[in-house]
Amino acid sequence: MIKNRLKVLRAERDWTQADLAERAGISRQAVISIEKYKYTPSLDLAFTLAKVFGVDITEVFVQEED
């Protein structure tokens, strides 16, 4: 499973899901789905999200063994 820190990173910046969605050029529903592990973003989107936060992709996403 690929875990993500979107919610934590958003909270550190005081961003709403809508704020992140706008900055990343995706829908708020996409942000919700990624945060709830209902959707795994493409590699391109994962890099975009990391860039929006200004961090390395490994600070946003990590693969964990089940």
Automatic annotation (TrEMBL):
Top-level taxonomic group: Bacteria
Entries under Pfam families matching the protein: HTH_3
UniProt keyword DNA-binding present: yes
Stored InterPro entries: Cro/C1-type_HTH, Lambda_DNA-bd_dom_sf
Alphabetized CDD domains for the sequence: HTH_XRE
Keyword vocabulary terms for this entry: DNA-binding
Gene Ontology MF terms in the entry: DNA binding
Domain HTH cro/C1-type: 6-60
Protein name (database record): Transcriptional regulator
The organism of origin for this protein: Floricoccus tropicus
